[in-house]
């Protein structure tokens, strides 16, 4: 379970980013890193192991301390071992663009080969590094017509003898172009030394939340990294992205269609997220199980009428009673919950049930008979 934190505003980014990473420690990780934009440069620091190791490396780093825009990440190794080279953020060849990424880029091998043919060199074993180089490739070779001088501008420059001044490249457009080439899942945040006051965030299949504060924005993969600073948030949907800078926040799709998002409020407090006096999160969650079960059943159990309300699937009730087999797909702790569901479905409903790892099930060609519920 990887964690993402990003910040753009008027404060020093480093304390907020490191604090956010610590809020995400319960997810589990094996390396951590941070990238901050300051004084026209991208400053990156990464470390295998715990966040405390990263903090030790950051001691005395005035450049990272001074930056007001940055991204940070905790990684759980999927592609390549837990090393400093494989830790996020990943940068392009120029060291001007940095990306933090959750998810899996399924076609990264093909993309990597294309980019290497174009002269890109890679320094990690990860799929995520491809994103930094792919965005860089489109950013360096921005071919959008709006980026070129008009015929009238060219004619005027020829007459006056002035040197044409190209319009600035568009990082948001480069991110959009890159993500259209990607197959897989992503929650990501991007910063660039050439556009120092900006963070771009995008998601597909991997959660991403944006905290909206006073003249600042915080991007995170989990609200626990945001709630201490603001309770006002925007939830990105799949194939949506957000561009945040000093002018504000705008949301759009990766196909460049503007999207209007509603600011919502986080309904739980920092105390509910924090350890609350327990030694570690596993112990806390064990003792929270009774309350968690009560919360999950609220609005679904009608004890007076002895009825169960299944919101969202009531319209399928006639089809569900014909069920002959149930397949539960899940990963991580949800897989363990699925095992409990298997016992319950078979014991109470007498319906054959199996639990599959979703990460493997999606690549199989399973046999699914009629009247099977997945």
How many whole angstroms does the radius of gyration measure?
24 Å
Q: What structural category do the secondary elements indicate?
A: alpha+beta
Low-confidence stretches: 144-156
Number of helices: 13
Biggest sheet statistics: 8 strands, antiparallel
Q: Tell the overall outline.
A: globular
Strand order of the largest sheet: 3-2-4-1-10-9-11-14
Average pLDDT level: 88
Q: What is the count of β-strands?
A: 19
Q: What oligomeric arrangement do these chains adopt?
A: single chain
Which percent range fits the helix content? 25-40%
Distance between the termini: 24 Å
Descriptive account of the structure:
- This protein is of the alpha+beta class.
- It contains 13 helices and 19 strands.
- It has an eight-stranded antiparallel β-sheet. A six-stranded antiparallel β-sheet has the order 5-6-7-8-12-13, with helices on one face.
- The protein is globular and about 65 Å long.
- The chain starts with a strand and ends with a strand.
- Residues 144-156 have low confidence and may be disordered.
């Amino acid at each position: 379970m990887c964690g993402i934190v990003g910040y753009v505003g008027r404060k020093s980014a480093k304390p907020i980013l490191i604090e956010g990473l610590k809020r995400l420690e319960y997810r589990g990780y094996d390396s951590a890193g941070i990238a901050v934009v300051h004084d026209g440069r991208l400053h990156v620091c990464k470390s295998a192991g715990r966040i405390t190791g990263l903090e030790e490396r950051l001691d005395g780093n005035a450049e990272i301390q001074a930056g007001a825009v940055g991204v940070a990440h905790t990684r759980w190794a999927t592609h390549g071992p837990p090393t400093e080279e494989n830790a996020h953020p990943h940068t392009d060849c120029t060291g001007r663009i940095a990306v933090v990424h959750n998810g899996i880029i399924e076609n990264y091998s093909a993309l990597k080969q294309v980019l290497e043919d174009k002269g890109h060199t890679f320094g990690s074993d990860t799929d995520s590094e491809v994103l930094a180089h792919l965005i860089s490739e489109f950013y360096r070779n921005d071919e959008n017509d709006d980026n070129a001088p008009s015929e009238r501008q060219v004619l005027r420059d020829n007459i006056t003898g002035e040197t044409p001044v190209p319009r600035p490249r568009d990082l948001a457009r480069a991110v959009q172009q890159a993500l259209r080439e990607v197959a897989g899942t992503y929650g990501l945040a991007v910063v660039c030394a050439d556009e120092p006051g900006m963070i771009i965030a995008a998601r597909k299949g991997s959660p991403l939340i944006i905290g909206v504060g006073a003249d600042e924005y915080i991007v995170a993969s989990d609200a626990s990294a945001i709630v201490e600073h603001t309770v006002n948030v925007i939830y990105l949907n799949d194939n949506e992205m957000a561009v945040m800078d000093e002018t504000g926040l705008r949301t759009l799709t990766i196909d460049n269609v503007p999207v209007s998002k509603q600011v919502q409020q986080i309904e739980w407090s920092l105390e509910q997220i924090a350890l609350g006096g327990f030694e570690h999160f596993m112990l806390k969650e064990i003792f929270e199980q009774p309350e968690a079960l009560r919360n999950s059943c609220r609005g679904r159990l009608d004890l007076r009428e002895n009825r169960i309300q299944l919101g969202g699937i009531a319209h399928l009730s006639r089809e569900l009673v014909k069920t002959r087999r149930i397949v539960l797909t899940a990963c991580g702790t949800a897989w363990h919950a699925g095992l409990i569901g298997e016992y319950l479905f078979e014991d109470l409903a007498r319906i054959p049930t199996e639990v599959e790892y979703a990460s493997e099930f999606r690549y199989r060609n399973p046999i699914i008979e009629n009247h099977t519920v997945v």
